[in-house]
Amino acid sequence: MKTVVTFILMAGLSLCLTISASAADLHLAVAANFTGPMEQLKPLFEKASGHKLIISYGTVGKFYAQIKNGAPFELLISADDETPIRLEKDGLALPETRFTYAIGKLMLWSTKPGLVDASGEVLKQADFKRLAIASPKLAVYGAAGVEVMKKLGVYEQLQSRLVFGENISQAYQFVATGNADLGFVALSQIYKNGNYAAGSHWQVPSNLYPRIRQDAVLLSKGRDNPAGKALLVFLKTTETKKIIRSYGYDI
C-alpha cells in the first residue's frame, strides 16, 4: 500500500512541475491545528520529492510577527486566510501561490464522558471549574471560541474560568492532562478516520463563529526554492486531500 501511495504522490508531483535533481531544505511555518496531518504528510512528501521539511508549529499571530522581523520561513501553512493576505500586502508572500488547503472546524471537548452535551448547554450551565482556550489574540481557533461564547451570551460569565494556551496545541494539552475540565479545540486534534478521542464533545455549529478558511502561501524567502513549489503541488494532490479530510477538515 505504501508503494502505491508513494507512486501516486510522485506521479502527481512530476505531472505538475519538474522537481530539481538536487534535494533542498524547506523552512515552513505550520499552524498548530494542522500538526497531526502535517506529521503524516511530511515523510510521504520527503520520500516522493527528495526534499526535506524543517517545520515549526505555532500560532499565526506569532508567525506573522516573526516573518515581519525576518524569520527564515519560506512557506506558511496558515490557520486562516487573513494572515497570508496581510503578508502579501507587506510584500512578504507571493499572491499567485496562495490557495485554501482546508476548512477548519471548532469543537468543545472534555476527557470526561457526559460532561459536554450534544448542544453545548454545558457552557450555559457552567458546571465546571476551568475551560481551556487558545489565546484569541494569537490563535484563530481561540478567537473563534470567544465568538461562540459571546453569541451564546456566556462570555462575561465564564471569563474567570478561562485558561489560556499560547496556541491550540496547548489548549488541547490542558484538557488532555486534566488541568482544564473542557476546552475549545480543533476537530483535527480529536478526530481521525471517523473516530473521536475518548470523552465527550460538541461540534460547534458553523454559524456561531467565522468560517475558518486555512490558506497556504509561498513566502518571498522561498521564491527560488524548488521544495516550496513542490510542497504546494503536493498539498493539492488527491491523496493528500484524502489524508487532510481524514482529520475532519473540509476542503
From TrEMBL:
Supply the alphabetized keyword list.
Answer: Metal-binding, Molybdenum, Signal
CDD domains tied to this protein:
PBP2_AvModA
Checking InterPro entries in the record gives:
AvModA-like_subst-bd, ModA, ModA/WtpA
Source superkingdom:
Bacteria
Biological process, per Gene Ontology: molybdate ion transport
> Could you tell me which SUPFAM superfamilies the record lists for this protein?
Periplasmic binding protein-like II
Pfam families from the entry? Answer: SBP_bac_11
Binding residues for molybdate: I168
Q: Which residues form the signal peptide?
A: 1-23
Q: Which GO terms describe its molecular function?
A: metal ion binding; molybdate ion binding; tungstate binding
Spell out the family assignment given in the record's similarity comment.
Belongs to the bacterial solute-binding protein ModA family.
* Subunit structure comment from the entry: The complex is composed of two ATP-binding proteins (ModC), two transmembrane proteins (ModB) and a solute-binding protein (ModA).
Its protein name is Molybdenum ABC transporter, periplasmic molybdate-binding protein
Please tell me the species this chain comes from.
Trichlorobacter lovleyi (strain ATCC BAA-1151 / DSM 17278 / SZ)
